[in-house]
Design goal:
This protein is α/β, with parallel strands linked by helices. Helix content is 34%, strand content 18%. A four-stranded mixed beta sheet has the order 4-7-5-6, with helices on both faces. A three-stranded parallel beta sheet has the order 2-1-3, with helices on both faces. The longest helix has 14 residues, at 24-37.
């Protein structure tokens, strides 16, 4: 959350920040630091996957939106990048894959772990994130598979749900924001 020096000296009241991605924890820390640096201000956070971020800023319902897309009529500032982590069960013998192999798994063209490593066997169980999450768009874009992800996959919304599925199923593979994966 940034503002020009003159503005920050005069800022009082509330600031509404809306978002829907995995960056919530970081934004909450920034909001707290902003409040501490600007006594008399309060940052209200609204975080929900159903929010229409750009529309909320345009209508004045929000002061700032944290999203992964640029909007032509709004000012966009990149404040951070987060990595994506592909995760498998700890017992899976495969510990490293090339980007193209990961893309092939999530497109559904590689369907068995044995195609990647002779020590691994079994059908690959792909866990995707819902399309309405910025995480999915970023993941597919980074792999060059936008709109081509396999339709034979389970969709799980929450990070905890993904972690539970992958930790409980040897042949499962999914992805998380790097901060969520490192926390796990």
């Amino acid at each position: 959350l940034l503002a020009t020096p003159g503005l920050t000296q005069e800022l009082r009241g509330g600031l509404t920040v809306v978002g829907q991605g995995p960056e919530r924890a970081v934004i909450e820390q920034l909001a707290l630091a902003f409040e501490q640096a600007h006594l008399g201000t309060a940052v209200e956070m609204q975080w929900n996957h159903n929010l229409r971020l750009a529309e909320m800023v345009r209508s004045g319902a929000a002061d700032l939106a944290v999203g992964g897309r640029e909007e032509a009529d709004l000012t966009t500032t990149t404040i951070a990048w987060d990595g994506l982590a592909v995760i498998v069960n700890f017992s899976n013998p495969i510990k490293e894959l090339a980007k193209q192999q990961v893309a092939s798994i999530f497109k559904g063209t590689i369907r068995d772990w044995g195609e990647l490593d002779e020590r691994a066997t079994g059908k690959i169980y792909v866990v995707l994130r819902p399309d309405d999450q910025q995480l999915s768009a970023g993941f597919e874009q980074s792999l060059g598979i936008v709109g081509a992800a396999t339709t034979k996959a389970k969709h799980i919304r929450s990070d905890q749900g993904v972690l539970s599925r992958v930790s409980g199923q040897l042949d499962a593979v999914s992805y998380l924001a790097m901060n969520a994966a490192l926390d796990a």
